[in-house]
Write a structure and sequence with these properties.
single chain; mainly alpha; 75% helix; 0% strand
Length: 60
């Protein structure tokens, strides 16, 4: 998942939403959750990550 860690910060919000939405649709929930928390979270700033999680409806 190294390439994703490098590309995530350089993508605009819309592209992140599109890519992660597609990935989420094609992966088991547990796999996507591990990827989101283990790769996406550390590669983005807190505000960017929070916005992304909210729009993907991954937070209560």
């Amino acid at each position: 998942m190294g390439p994703l860690r490098l590309t995530m910060p350089s993508m605009n919000h819309g592209k992140r939403m599109e890519m992660l939405g597609d990935m989420r649709a094609g992966m088991p929930a547990a796999v996507f959750s591990a990827l989101f928390d283990g790769v996406v979270r550390p590669s983005l700033g807190e505000a960017e990550f929070t916005r992304l999680a909210a729009e993907l409806r991954l937070v209560g």
